[in-house]
Amino acid sequence: MTSPLEQKIRITGPSIVTANRTFDGAVIYRNRHKGWSTDLSEAAIVRNADEARALLAEAVADDVGAVGPYIAPVQIRGDDKVKPGNLRERIRQKGVTIDLLPVSA
Amino acid sequence: MYAYDELDRTLINERVEEFRDQVKRRLSGELTEDEFKMLRLQNGVYLQLHAYMFRVAIPYGTLSSRQLRRLAHVARRYDRGYGHFTTRQNIQFNWIKLAELPDALADLAEVGIHSMQTSGNNTRNVTSDQWAGVVPGEVEDPRIWSELLRQYTTLHPEFSFLPRKFKFAITASPHDRAAIKIHDIGLRLHRNAQGEIGFEVLVGGGLGRTPFIAKTIRPFVHGRDLLSYVEAILRVYNQYGRRDNIYKARIKILVHELGIEKFAAEVEEEWRAMGETALTLDEAVIEEVRSRFAYPMYEKLPHMPDELKAAAHDPLFERWRRNSVFTHKVQGYAIVTLSLKPVGAPPGDATADQMDAIADLADKYSFGEIRVGHEQNLALPHVARRDLPALWKALDRIGLATPNVNLISDIIACPGLDYCSLANARAIPIAQELSRRFANPDTAELIGRLHINISGCINACGHHHVGHIGILGVDKNGEEFYQITIGGRADENAELGVLIGPSVPFGEVADVIEDIVEAYLALRERPDELFVDTVKRLGVEPFKERVYATR
Questions:
Q1: Beta strand B90-96 pairing with B369-372
Q2: ipTM exceeds 0.90, yes or no
Q3: Which of B94, B349, B402 is the mutation pick for testing A, counting most A CBs within 10 A?
Q4: Which of A90, B329, B375, B503 could form a disulfide with A84, with the two C-beta atoms 3.0–4.6 Å apart?
Q5: pLDDT of A105
Q6: Percentage of residues of chain B with pLDDT beyond 70
Q7: For domain B134-291, which architecture applies?
C-alpha cells in the first residue's frame, strides 16, 4: 500500500490531520503540541501542501498511538470555530446520524 | 445444533491466546499497524469511522440460546448494548475497543463462537438456508455439508492468502433462501438419476463494482467428491486470480475473463490430476458429521390446535401468523421469522436485552435454537403451533412481531456512511424513512412481496444489485446521491437489477420509491403479480417514465 506520505497532497482550504486512536479506535485530531486530541477545536490547522505534509509526517511517525492518519478538510467559521469540511468528517466528529438503539427493549 | 468436539474447542481457545498476544504486541508498539492489520482482519476486526468493528461468525446461521446470550453479553459489556446482523450470517459490534477484544473473544470461545476468517483474503463463513433441517422438501440438511466445508476451510494453509476473499453458500431446497448465485461458489444439494446425493456447483457469482450471477460449472458432483472438487476450483483460482489489481481479484473476474468453459476445463484437469485423495470423503466421515447434528424430540401434535383456533379471531395475530409463520416439515410445528425491521429502526440491529429475551423465548418455544438469515432477520425453527399465540404476544412486547417479513419495509441495508469507512452515502436513514412511508401494514400487504436492498457504496454489502428495488449511495461533489435499480432478485432465478435513470438526491429517494410502487400497483395484471414479475414483463421503461416525468 502506498504510504500516505507518498501520495500527492492537494489542499484547497483549511485542513487538519485526523486518525483513529490505536487502543480504542476513537476519532482523534493532530494538535499543535505534537500530540492528539479528541476535540476538533484543538486540531492544528494547515493551509498549504507543505504544512499538511509536515503535519502528516509527524502523525504517521506515531504508529503506536494512531492508526491511518490522513488529511481532511475543515471549515473555519467567522468566530474561528472549526467545523468538519464534509459529511464523512461530520459523522466522524458528531457520531452516527441515527438513534443508536433499535426501538423497544 | 452441531456439537463441537475437543479439537474445535482447542483450536478456538488457542486462537484467542494467539490474538491476545498479537494485540499486546500491537499496543506496545512491537507490531506496526502494517504488520498487525492482516492479523486483526483474519480475526474479523476492521477499523471503521468511529471505532473498531468486530465481526463474529454464525456458521450456517445456527445459534443456541446460550450462544445468543453470550452475544448479548458482548454487546452489553464491550460494546454499546446492541449488535448488527449482516447479510452473511455474521453479527457485527460497532464500538469495540482493541484493548478489550481478546477478552470478548475469550468470552465467546467459551460457547464455541469465534471470528476466524470473517475478514481477509481467505474462505469466509460458510452460509446456508436459515431454514435448513426444518423446511419441507429438502434433499438433506445442508448444514451437514456446510460443516464439512467449515472444517475443511478453517485455517486451510493453502487458501489462507487467496487473491481475494472467497464465499460459499449452500442450499438444499428448490427455493433458494441462501442466495447461492451471488457467491464465489454456490452449492445446490440435489439427487442424481441414481438417487445419490451431490451438488450442482456454481462458480463466479458476486456483487460489488462488477456484479455477476454465478454460472454452473458442473451439474452434479457426488457428495464424496465435494471437498476435492472445491479444492480444484480454489487451486485454479489461487494460481490465476488477479493479485495485481484488487478490483479484479475475485474469482468472478477470472471466470468472466477465461469464460466458464475454459475455467471449467482448468478445474477438471486439476481435479483429474488430484485423483483419489485424502479429500475424498468416505461415508463414515460424512456420517460422523451428520451424527453431530442433534434434532429436537418433536411431539406428535395436531396441525390446528385449539389455541390457534381461538387466536384466529384476533386480526392482529392473524396478520402476523400469515406473514411470519412458515410451514415446518413436522406436523404441529412451525418456523417463525422474527423481523429485525421494526418501523423506523436500523435494519438488522438487535439490543442486548432483545437478544437475551429471544434466547429465553427460544428455550421456551424452540428447543433452545435460533437461526440467522441473510435478510437480516432471525428465526425460531421449531415452534409448536399451539404456542404461536403466546409467542406472538411475547415477541410483540420486545418489538419483534412486526408483520413485514418479505414485504416492502423488510429492507436489507448495510451500515453505510453512519459507520463504514468505505461508504459514500448513508443507507440506514434511507431504510428508516422508507419503513415509515410504508408503515401501514394494509398497504404493505396490498403491495405484496417486494425486497428493497440498500448499499452505501459500490461494494454492495446491502446486495442492492439483487434487490427487487436496489438503492446504491454515491458521492456527487460531496453530496449523497442514490442510483435506483429495479428487477433484481437473489433467489433461484437470480438476476441483476437494471438502472432506471440518473441518481437522485438523499431527500428524494423515498418519493422516488413511492412513485415506483404506485406505478407497479397501476401496471400489475392482477393482485398476485409480484413487483419483480411486473418489471420482468414490462421492463424498466414505464417505471422510468413515472419517476423522471416530473423531475
A1: unpaired
A2: yes
A3: B349
A4: A90
A5: 38
A6: 100
A7: 2-Layer Sandwich (3.30)
